Structures are given as C-alpha cells and as structure tokens.
Amino acid sequence: MNALPRAVDLDLIGCRMCGLVCRNVPGNVKLDGDGVDDAMACPRCGSTLRRRKTNSYARTWALLIAGFLLYIPANVLPIMRTASLNDIDDNTIISGVVELWNNGSADLAVIVFTASIVVPMLKFLSLGMLLVSSQRGSDWARPQRARLYRLVEFIGYWSMLDVFVVALLTALVRFSVLSRVEPLPGVIFFGLTVVLTMLASMSFDPRLIWDGRSNDD
Questions:
Q1: d(CA 103, CA 13)
Q2: Contact 166, 187 (CB under 8 A)
Q3: DSSP β-bridge partners for residue 82
Q4: pLDDT digits (tens, 9 = 90+) for 46-77
Q5: What torsion do the CA atoms of 19, 21, 26, 30 make, to the nearest 10 degrees?
Q6: Membrane-spanning regions, if any (predicted)?
Q7: Of 10, 63, 196, 205, whose Cβ has the fewest other Cβ atoms within 10 Å?
C-alpha cells in the first residue's frame, strides 16, 4: 500500500497566519530578512510562507532544556509564604499540595498536583519523544504522535494554574488584617518554566512527524 502524498510532494504550502493553502508557483518569491530567496509570500495576507519552521529542532530543544532546568528550582524553592499572628510558613509546590490534602481540600490538592507536577513532566517527556522520533525519521504511530502534539499544545495553557492560585490567594488574604500571603521566587521559576514549554511546543513543527527523515529547512 503506497503512502499518501504530503503537501510538500504536491508542491503545496499552508499559510500559518491566515490558513490559505498556496501552490509554490514560480515567480511568487520574495527575499526574507536573512536574504533567503526561496520563501513565498502569501497572496492573501502577505506573510512569508515556509514548508517547515526554520530551525525547529534546535529552537525546540533549546527551549525545552531551558524549561527543564528552570523546573528544578521551581520545585525546590518555596512559591508562597503564609503569615499569621502565630506562624510563618513557606510552601513549595509539593508541601502546598500536602498541606491542602491534610486540611481537607483533597480535590484542590489533586488539581494543583496535576497542573504543577504531572502536566509539566508529561510535556517534557512528550516533546522529547516527538523530537527524538522525528529526528530519527521514525514512521512509528505517526497519527498518534500528531494527536499527542495537539494535546500538548492544548493542555499547555492550563499549566499556569499554580501561579493563578498564588495570585488569587494573595489578593484575597490581603483583605485580612490577621494573615498575609506573599509570592516567593519559586513561583517566578515556575512561571518561566510554563512559558518556555509553551514556546517549545509552538516552535516544534508537527509536519516533521510525517517527513520520514530529518528535514529542518
């Protein structure tokens, strides 16, 4: 059974800005900022058309590794300080989850644990697997890998839940004169981790999954 043709085999290019599918017609060429003359201009919106995202592998690896390195202090350093008349307590992500669980907020503890621990680790593993398999030109489970990439993109926007919880608690507790909540450096590292992993998923070109060989033009 012959493989279905790809857009690159049919000489078609999809515009990432407006979604128009264009044919690579000779003469419809313009120079880009780097002086490369093989980039087409979209006839609808005028943006540069490229068959693949430029340096997709290198940029995605760099962002993913940077996000993983920042994820370590995000879990080690405290993200929130709660102060009352009798106690001052600094919480990391894990200790915050444990405290929520012990205080009877098991549902909230599960949500925070999923958004702050499970989701980032799954994103690291999933993007790493997509990068390695695409660079090796693997034809294993391509439809499933493409769906996995769409899932990683979708859940990435919910990874900031921990930051939102700290911001919400800080705003609410400020109305009380007997207690106080302050964000600590850990929440900054966690926010940077989320942003970098989101940029990594945006930098990865899912069309590379279907190439069958390394093609990072």
A1: 55
A2: yes
A3: 89, 181
A4: 777 777 777 889 999 999 999 999 999 988 88
A5: 0
A6: 60-80, 108-133, 154-177, 183-204
A7: 10
Asked: is 54-210 a CATH 1.20.140 domain? The reply is: yes
Instruction: Count Cβ atoms below 10 Å from residue 137 Cβ, excluding itself.
Output: 12
Cβ(206)–Cβ(146) below 8 Å: yes
pLDDT of res. 141: 81
The Cα–Cα gap between 102 and 213 comes to 51
Q: What does the alpha-carbon distance between residue 55 and residue 131 come to, in Å, rounded to a whole number?
A: 12
- CB contact burial 14-46 (16+ within 10 A = b; e otherwise): ebeeeeeebeeeeeeeeeeeeeeeebbbbeeee
Q: Which residue has the tokens 């043709």?
A: 5
Cα distances from 181 to residues 101, 115, 177, in angstroms, run 19, 21, 11
Could you identify the residue written with the tokens 């790493």? 128
